[in-house]
Amino acid sequence: MADVRAALRGRRIGLIGTGTMGRALLRGWLAGGLPRRQVLAADPQAAARRVAQQRFGVAVTSDNRRVAAAADVLVLAVKPQQMAEVVAQIAPLATPRRLVISIAAGMRLAWFEERLLAPVIRVMPNLPATVGYGFSALALGRRATRRHAALAQALFGAVGQAVVLPERHFDAITAVSGSGPAYLFYLVQAWEEAARALGLPAAVARQAVRQTLLGSVALLETQGQAPAQLIARVASKRGTTEAALRVLDRLRVGARLSLAVRAAANRSRELSGRSG
Questions:
Q1: CA distances from 106 to 23, 44, 79, 102, 125 (A)
Q2: Where does 8-93 show beta strands of DSSP type E?
Q3: What average pLDDT does range 95-99 have in this prediction?
Q4: Are 101 and 108 contacting, i.e. CB atoms less than 8 angstroms apart?
Q5: Measured distance CA(211)–CA(217) in Å, rounded
Q6: How far, rounded to the nearest angstrom, does the alpha carbon of residue 7 sit from its chain's CA centroid?
Q7: 55-81, pLDDT tens digit by residue?
Q8: What global pTM score does this model have?
Q9: How far is residue 115 from each of residues 7, 14, 102, 130, 145, measured CA to CA in Å?
Q10: What is the full DSSP assignment across 103-117?
């Protein structure tokens, strides 16, 4: 996790939108040592403002302009369909001295740069950020500097890992890490159903699949071996694992997964084309 307090020392952070991802960021920033007094948030919903105040103890308002005027770094955590209205509100305050960060899916840098004088960074986070294990890709706009990139990496490193990539890779990142958790949840659902079909009690099926998944990810992270090498460690000749892998190969599961990821990337390209 990033040392947010050190990276953002003396800077005021504005957050517009305190929904699922906004709350995840607040949680990560405060856990990373960012003082509450450095954060000002905005949300149009009274219930969302109440949750942010009660759960995180930060100042919250319904006035986006107030947040934009006070912030050195402004994070826009609103849905794409809300972005035009929010940007119109903050545009007069988005000066070159303020960094604007957008996490709206499909909203390209060029769209923001046509409307704002501020340096802009586009971020693609994913759902695991809500539990501190996110993966975020950052694309720098034309006016953003390495110093701005370091600030953004600290903010999104507080909820997982954050890397800088050219925006041309964002359709791929959307397909791989943005949509990626759903692929895994789909597999887990099918895996648990198969376990129950073999007669395992539901609670045991759930525990067996999820603990196996956690342990397997730990092996990937700690053993320094490629997936193929780890597969070889599990699959003995003419054994049970080999029998299962033969079925997966015969059904071309790997190729079909590749097709699914490509479909997500193509759809991302279509959607981002509309915003540009």
A1: 21, 22, 10, 10, 12
A2: 13-16, 39-42, 59-61, 73-76
A3: 95
A4: no
A5: 10
A6: 20
A7: 999 999 999 999 999 999 999 999 999
A8: 0.91
A9: 28, 19, 13, 30, 19
A10: --TT--HHHHHTT-S
DSSP state for residue 44 in the 8-state scheme:
S
- Output the DSSP codes for 215-241: HHHHHHHHS---HHHHHHHH--TTSHH
Domains of the chain by range and CATH?
A: 4-169 (3.40.50.720), 180-271 (1.10.3730.10)
* Tokens coding 231: 């597969």
DSSP at 174: I
Mean pLDDT of 207-221: 97
Residues 106-110: contacts with CB under 8 Å, at least 24 apart: 106/80, 106/174, 106/268, 106/271, 106/272, 106/274, 106/275, 107/80, 107/83, 107/272, 107/275, 108/167, 108/272, 108/275, 108/276, 109/139, 109/141, 109/142, 109/167, 110/276
- DSSP assignment letter at 8: T
pLDDT in tens, 221-264: 999 999 999 999 999 999 999 999 999 999 999 999 999 999 99
If you compute the radius of gyration of the chain from its CA atoms, what whole number of angstroms results? Answer: 21
The span from the CA of 65 to the CA of 61, in Å, is 10
DSSP 8-state symbol, 74 = E
Contact 148, 2 (CB under 8 A): no
The two structure tokens encoding residue 256? 């079909």
Q: Are 121 and 146 in contact (CB under 8 A)?
A: no
- Two tokens, residue 206: 């759930």
State mean pLDDT over 41-51: 94
How remote is the C-alpha of 227 from its chain's centroid? 24
Tokens 């054994």 belong to which residue? 239
